[in-house]
Amino acid sequence: MNTPPIIQVLSPEVAERIGAGEVVERPASVVKELIENSLDAGATAVSVEVRDGGLSLIRVSDDGCGMSRADAPRALERFATSKIHSLEDLEAIVTLGFRGEALSSIAAVARLEILTRAQEELEGTRLRAEGGEVAVDPAASPVGTSVTVRDLFYNAPARRKFLKSPMREGELVRQMVVRYSLAYPAVAFRLVVNGRERYVAPPATPLERVGTALGREVAAEMVEMAWEAADLRIWGYVSRPTVGRRDRRGQFFFINGRPVRSGLLAVMLERPYGGRLPPERRPLAVVHIRLDPHLVDVNVHPRKAEVRLSQERSVYGAVTRAVEAALAPYPRREEAFPALEWPFAEVPVEPEAVREGRAEYIAGRLEPMGQLNNAYIVARGREGLVVVDQHGAHEQVLFERLLGGEGGCPLSPPARIELTAREAELLGPYSTALADLGMEVESFGGRAFLIRSLPAPLAGGDPRALLEAVLEELPACRRLEPEGVRERLAMKMACTAAVKAGDVLTTEQMQALLDELTTAWSPATCPHGRPAFVLLTVEELERRFMRR
Prior knowledge:
By secondary structure, this protein is an alpha+beta fold. 33% of the residues lie in helices and 24% in strands. Strands 5-4-3-6-2-1-7-8 form an eight-stranded mixed beta sheet. A five-stranded mixed beta sheet has the order 9-10-13-11-12, sandwiched between helices. The chain has a four-stranded antiparallel beta sheet with strand order 16-17-18-22. Helix 1 (12-23) packs across helix 4, helix 12 crosses helix 16 (482-497) and helix 12 crosses helix 17 (507-518).
């Protein structure tokens, strides 16, 4: 007869480790909690330093209000906080942190040191916490707080095994810093990784901060949006339909200053882009939502990454309306072919009608006028001047043709190539995906391989260079679904075979590329989401020359 297990109350040490796991998932989680504490303390500058992806060192320093000698030790106690005092406060959270778990959770899984000074004190305080022991000493310190976290998960080796490489963890930290810098453009942010400055964002306007965080090219393609009704306000920036990405990593949502994840918000953001942006592309956006804190429950996720809204439909609808208003100057492409709906492949339609619609979208047939810096084709269009990125445009044309399944072009004789043992092992599982794109590679004994055909769009290319490029891409394909692998390899092939910046093109070559671009399914962007062309309309030229 089995004896029933005995129920026991966990020891405080074990309970603390479990609780810490809900808050401290990885180095980026630590950075998140510490940045939130800095912002809640009224910091105007936040500095983040990490080493080895944050495993050996994380240091977050700020010029906020700091802590007094009496308060500092309490900050390490669980559920100790200065931000809420009652259940009523919990129902209308206006700070980023509020649970009082961050520092105690970090101290449970790392060696922690806090250096802090409040404005009214002449001397600072240093706290050291390790293994449940806390030491408090006087120390010289500027006003503000600096928290140093060393040897994260030193006492939880199983947790360390689930982390990514230091480079990947460091990148997640960078993304976290960028996210909060977009939420608080008036605050200066600085990130140092392994002794090297990786990100510097001085105080700026919201659009300037978008440029610092996402690139000036992206900021130049953003349009402002704003919508307000009663106590709900939506504002921020969204990308023009001329630019898009394959994923949603360029979308940032903030509710009352708190970065949040929400698939539904992303859907509502993207809805107005229907007919303006190809369905496989995602817009970029920085969306700020302000509403009554009583209508937001921020206590539904262990790491406060998600929120619950009591008036979801109103908020989501407002986001769509705000984006739709911002995109009003950019007509939907369905106007050129009203019978079509996205995605085109699902609607039976004559190819000529599609080509005309696509050509209409980028100003009809383009006539090349020459090259600029041997990188851009300057063309005359019906609506104005069109500047085409020759590499990005050719890359998109080849990418679409590769995915279109044009088949392979046999090589006679086949190209023979020797691979390393690792390359041969990498290639094995992907031979079918390559063949599907028109590139047949087969073993010829030992580490020798024969390239028997190239994709038809790339016929005449260098087989060896193409296979070498594919081999570079294969490690990134391991976790992708078959369709994702196919798209990733097509992107790499297209990038490798496309004309490059610096290539001199004849007038005939420029015209051929422009003709192909105007009949592409998605001429606005290259496969990586960058603009393939820029249109400068006659009206815009007249405005710049002050003729209207």
